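S2.1 Query sequence (Heme oxygenase)
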Amino acid sequence: MTTLPQHQQATLALNEAVLAPDFDEARFSRQLAALTTSQHEDAENSSFMQDLMSGRLDVTAYARLSGQLVHVYTALEERGRELASDPLAAAVHDPALERTVALEADLLALSGHSWREQHLPLSATRTYMDRIAQLDGVGYLAHHYVRYLGDLSGGFIVARLVSRAYGLVPGEPGLLFHHFPAIAKPKPYKDSYRLRIDEAAQRLTEAGRTAIIAEARAAFAHNTAIFRELASPVGSPPGH
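Output structure tokens follow.
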């Protein structure tokens, strides 16, 4: 039997974790996962992520990724607070998931005190941030699902691969992004998260549910665009 490279095994594991095959296909959370599989795979199979996970890059590349994600999460978490009274946003919003503080600590360890100047948002990141700033509750739920459920599902896999490739220590500055100290048992949490999405979807029309799927696809596309720009030799902010 052929053994896949570890980074390809990780991709399969991530897909299986997010798709959660134990869930009934009639449930909206299951439909959402199934109908965004193609976009999910496009993001994970991008050349930048494949090279990063396989150890073909260096720790600076991981810092560059973190330097873009901190802008995304800052925007998403600010929007979540702005939408606090929206029932759809409230269905998934949870401070225990927030990643900005962890990313800031990682970047301090990876890039030093000047990390903010070193990691200005790329063009694709600015476009993503602009999209997030305009989200309503439906859109916020979709982007929240793409980012946080993916992080919670695959974070330990990514942390292991990055640790092995670049010498960072899981759970310590440099890899805190993938560490969720406030969530002791990820699987029950993810099960509950999907139930909350299902319950929220029951309050929507078919058009509303379709809008969530479309926005989740867009969220994956925004992430893929960032990975594509990070892979480019000109993938740096203006003036760098």
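The CA atoms of residues 120 and 239 lie 10 Å apart. Residues 27-231 form a domain with the Heme Oxygenase; Chain A fold (CATH 1.20.910.10).
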